[in-house]
Amino acid sequence: MKKIKWTLVIAVILAAAVIYLYYTNSKSTINKELRDFAIDDTASITKIFLVDKNNHSITLEKKENYWTVNKDFTARNDLVNILLKTICRLNVKAPVPKSSHNTIVKSLAANSTKVEIYQNDRLVKTYYVGGSTPDNMGTYMLLEGSSVPFIMDIPGFTGYLSTRYTTDMVEWRERNVFRYKFSDIASVTAETPGAPSQSFKAISYGNNKFGIYSVAEKKDVPVFDTLALKKYIAYFKNLNFESYITDISAERKDSVLKSLPITIITVEDRAGNKKTIKMFYRPNYKKLVDGRGNLYQYDPDRMFSFINSDKDMILIQYFVFDPVIKELNYFTTKRNLH
Question: What is the pTM for the complete model shown?
Answer without folding.
Answer: 0.78
